[in-house]
Design brief:
This protein is α+β, with helices and mostly antiparallel strands. It is about 15% helix and about 45% strand. It has a 4-stranded mixed β-sheet with strand order 5-1-7-6. Strands 2, 3, 4 and 8 form a 4-stranded antiparallel β-sheet that branches.
């Protein structure tokens, strides 16, 4: 089984009771909402990654206003259609960000296809990845450890 480590940086941008999210297709093609952000390029600082990714996916420029925490996600993915199985480990750095410029637009030919503001109260009803919930818990609770209170089971 091939091992893969992916380090990524994401932003929680909240204003006027709304959160900025981007839409991305799930592995089965169903659209789901994600935090704006994404994978670090080799040699890139996570601070620069989150700023670049938010601009790419939403059109907005942000000021990084804080570090909320780090989410570690480990999942083995079975190979299909002749592909090898992958032992995937994602390390996701979650920041707070404030919009400082730019205009809302949708990414073209990227990992997302739409960006929008959503009422915080509406988030539970959205098709979304787990990281959105984890990041909102970090944003609300601001734990000193940088770890959300809901623990994942230890394998």
């Amino acid at each position: 089984m091939r091992r893969k480590l992916r380090v990524a940086a994401y932003a929680v941008c909240v204003r006027d009771g709304q959160i900025l999210l981007a839409r991305s297709p799930a592995p089965d093609g169903t659209p789901e909402w994600v935090l704006p952000g994404g994978g670090m390029e080799h040699g890139e600082d996570p601070y620069d990654t989150v700023r670049r990714e938010v601009t790419e996916e939403t059109g907005y420029r942000i000021e990084v206003t804080g570090l909320l925490g780090i989410d570690s996600h480990h999942v083995p993915i079975r190979g299909r259609l002749g592909r090898r199985s992958v032992d995937h480990h994602g390390v996701r750095i979650v920041y707070t960000g404030e919009i400082t410029g730019g205009d809302l637009r949708h990414e073209v030919n990227g990992s997302t296809d739409f960006a929008a503001w959503h009422d915080l109260d509406a988030v539970p009803g959205l098709a979304r990845i787990h990281l959105v919930d984890t990041a909102l818990r970090l944003w609300r609770e601001r734990p000193p450890s940088g770890r959300a209170t809901t623990e994942r089971p230890v394998p």
